[in-house]
Specification:
Jelly Rolls, 10-stranded mixed beta sheet
Length: about 325
């Protein structure tokens, strides 16, 4: 019996040590209790509607149809955007603050929707936008729908090596079994197959050549897609970060692959120009990390493709070490 109690004590001690070894670091402003409210008016040609956009940053209100840049030390950008195309001003809002149904706190609500532009009360353009939040910046005003990733810089300087990305989420998938592709430049069309929400963390080692081109090795990967509606909130969801080349692992999926060519995201280079970040290879598991990308989206990450009425709620992003 004495040996039994000793064994239990050792197990409890090991469990306690394991818990103490797990350190969590909150990503700034990821409790989503603070928001910037942007009140603006669209062009009279579009009806002169008053619109409200939101940004994740210290609480304040901005009046007027003006471009926004990250404020108050917040690293977060969103898919909310102010566009000014040949003098016509338009606002798009797919990310909003929302009250949690379980604890009354504030979270981020991400909606996939068709943004409709009506000229003289007639439908002129429909654009499918997935609600997204990400570490980086969006450079307003948007001037066109061409090359959507060229208007946003993805990732922030970062040198640590987390084991997991931890967060809370709730998901309501669209009832439609197919997706819509709609850029506004051509008639919308149906894309076979359901959509999925997505959350990821990517760790890169970046460098820049003398011409200002930026390249990267993918050092760490944690990427997951969600296809099933949840029954309320899922708290403490964890995505493991896998280091090195994961392309031969059993859990590997094509969407976890390197981001290059048309799939590349962008950054601001040392010359002040937004350029693609070409992931040219997998990094070694112990390679130095220089940047971290984190994104949550109500869509699967393809521009202008998604399922209307899919909604993803997220809250409390932590890095676990």
């Amino acid at each position: 019996m004495k040996n039994y109690y000793c064994l239990v004590a050792l197990l409890l001690l090991a469990f306690t040590v394991n818990l103490s070894a797990q350190k969590r670091e909150k990503i700034p402003f990821s409790d989503f209790e603070q928001w910037v409210t942007r009140n603006m008016t669209e062009s009279k040609l579009l009806g002169g509607n008053n619109r409200t956009l939101y940004a994740i940053a210290p609480t304040t209100t901005i009046e007027g149809t003006v471009a926004y840049r990250n404020m108050g030390g917040s690293p977060w950008a969103t898919s909310n955007a102010y566009a000014n195309v040949v003098g016509i001003k338009k606002a798009s809002c797919t990310v909003t603050p929302d009250r949690r149904s379980d604890n009354g706190g504030t979270c981020a609500r991400l909606d996939s929707k068709l943004e409709v532009v009506r000229v003289l009360n007639m439908v002129d353009i429909e654009v499918l936008v997935s609600g997204s939040i990400y570490l980086g910046e969006l450079y307003e005003p948007i001037r066109s729908v061409n090359s959507p990733y060229s208007k946003m810089t993805m990732g922030i300087p970062f040198t640590k090596r987390p084991k997991k990305l931890v967060f809370d989420y709730k998901l309501q998938m669209s009832d439609d079994g197919n997706r819509i592709y709609s850029t506004g430049l051509k008639p919308k069309k149906v894309v076979q197959g359901p959509d999925s929400a997505e959350v990821y963390i990517l760790l890169q080692h970046r460098w820049e050549d003398e011409d200002g081109n930026v390249y990267a090795h993918r050092v760490g990967t944690g990427r997951k897609r969600y296809t099933q509606s949840t029954n309320g909130w899922v708290n403490g969801e964890a995505i493991d970060v896998h280091y090195g080349n994961i392309s031969t692992e059993l859990f590997y999926r094509p969407f976890m692959g390197l981001l290059n060519g048309k799939r590349s995201y962008s950054c601001m280079n040392s010359k002040g120009k937004i350029v693609p970040v070409q992931e040219v290879d997998w990094g070694a598991p112990d390679e130095e990390v220089t940047h971290m990308l984190v994104m949550a989206s109500s869509g699967c990450g393809t521009a202008f493709v998604g399922a209307e009425n899919t909604t993803l709620w997220v809250d409390n992003f932590y890095l676990e070490y």
